[in-house]
Amino acid sequence: MSQATLGDDDLFGEAATEMRTDVEDSLELARAALPEADAIWDVEADNALGVLNGLRSALDVGEATDHLYDAKKWYTMGERADAFEDGDDLAAEIERVEELIDSVETAHEQAGELASTLPQIRGELDDADDE
Question: In angstroms, rounded to a whole number, what is the distance separating the alpha carbons of residues 74 and 30?
Fold first, then answer.
């Protein structure tokens, strides 16, 4: 069928399908960009600071936030256009991925803060021992 014979409803249906696919693809890319579970569990180092730095690196979400942004953008466009017959599953998946990214980013920040604090605490304890 040529595009000249497609009606507005057909074009809208095709666009809605493509929009849903864009949301699903972006969510898949976001999940794939998150760290592997073993990468944050199996951290090797010679000391606590090395472990914390390794953990902080392993907890990097990479481009997951960019992909989530794209998913939310296309989902919002589809919702406003009333393009999804049932977009509840997309909304729920967006929320799940967003919560997971938030959890990983929070852990990343906490590991970074502890890694920054640990050398200072070690220095203070060394000074206390010298006194």
Answer: 14
